[in-house]
Amino acid sequence: MDDDRDTGWFRAVYARHYADVVRYGLRRLDGTAAAEELAQEVFLVAWRRRWDVPSQALPWLYGVARRLLANHWRAQRAAPPPGELREHPAADRHDGVTDLLDVRAALIRLSDDDQEILRLVAWEQLAVGEAALVLGCGVTAAKVRLHRARRRLAELLAGTSTPARVGGTR
Question: Kindly report the CA angle at 64 between 126 and 134, in degrees rounded to 5?
């Protein structure tokens, strides 16, 4: 075992990526407290598995967060995932807000896999290769998933398609 994975290493990773992991949680959960709790769980796993954390830690941390959320949602299968995007009643105030709400309304109609690849690339600003690490697939598969997810989102925004939300054929 290397001696470089000590508390100093962990503090540096935590300081550099804590806010990113909290933002990841905020986009998927209801409220700051839940997002911060998720981040704490992610960093607990990171400390316990510090020898497995690659030098590019952020995609690995997002992968841990994704698996923790999946486990949580599986445990609450009867209820929809927390933080699911909803339309806001005051959407007609500003065109930009309306457009954003249209995108969010279309996004929630996509499968969970499509939503996740779009969120990782657009919201978390990961490169496709980094998103592939989070998703546990190859770069080529991630590129194909991203292309298809973007196409389905564009179809929904244009009103030309109604893809199945979960488990639909692609």
Answer: 35
For the domain 7-75, what is the CATH code? 1.10.1740
- Amino acid 122 reads A
User: Which of 11-25, 66-80, 114-128 ranks highest by mean pLDDT?
Assistant: 11-25
Rounded Cα–Cα distance for residues 94 and 140 (Å):
39
Helix (H/G/I), strand (E/B), else coil: 19? helix
Task: Express each pLDDT in 134-152 by its tens digit.
Answer: 999 999 999 999 999 999 9
Please report where in the chains the tokens 């962990």 appear, as a residue. Answer: 10
Q: What is the pTM assigned to this prediction?
A: 0.62
Domain-by-domain residue ranges, the chain? 7-75, 91-158
Q: Output the DSSP codes for 97-111.
A: HHHHHHHHHHHTTS-
Question: What residues contact residue 125 under an 8 Å CB cut-off, 6+ apart?
Answer: none
